[in-house]
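re: that chain from earlier
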Amino acid sequence: MELDFDAFDRVEKDFDVLFYVLADTQKKIQKKLEKHSDGKVLKGNELVGWLGEIYTKILVNGNLVDDSHEHDVEANGNVRISVKTRKGTNSGWARTSAIPKLGGPDCPTHLMFVHLNDDYTVSSMWFYPWQDLLDSGRFKEHIVRGNFRSYYMAVNPGYDEKYRIYGGISASVAKEELQQGMQHMRKSDAIAYANNQYGLNLNNQNTHFSKENAAKPVWWYEIPLSKIENEDVQDIYLIAERAGDLKVLKVPVRFFRDNRAGFKVRTEKGVICLELDVDTYQNVVGPGKKDFIKFLL
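^ sequence. v structure.
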């Protein structure tokens, strides 16, 4: 079964700006709601589950199935995938939701565990053959007040590296992929490499990543206006990849604010559009055609 990372990349990037705004808005909503929650921890988000299933479907070129099945995605006719998705790093993020049963002809053939960052971008994905989990005793019983309720499985990031199909790349592996042309390097991989190489603390919130555009020699970025207008944000990092070479630019948010009239702005998406020339680092769109080379680390 071939994995279509290019299609997966395109769909995830299409939501990048919207999910940044959503994550920021959700934080504000949650803070207001917590004032009325009587100390109860607010948890649960159906959007998280939906994203995991849709990303899995796209990645394996499969189809979603209805809730009458024990699995969520079907691919290649006989591959049945149960998708479990968690967001954030709070206690319990690595534990799946309830698994009703383990055996039978209609049970899944695989389990996909999708871990999202707080801003809804994908942190890591693990793809387990169901039989491997059975043979190794990874499924555990969920007992409530002495009664069996269901089964669950917990991801072990260190132990389960052989099942990880996305994210979690080490700086040394990232460097090796750079030297080999970075065919499948993703944003999380580039961040891992840049943090190690430059001693930075980059993350999904403060960093944007672009490979050289296939149609013309530019790096293309969309910077949310909400990020530019956020007084708590001081700098935005742009990671740029070209032919196995990785560059990092540290751009003060004030530069965007002070020169906003010189940038191309897509008001319908709420973003500033950048197309940086790969040789000169000059922005080639917008009336100002600003030079970004001075921000190169």
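The mean pLDDT is 85.
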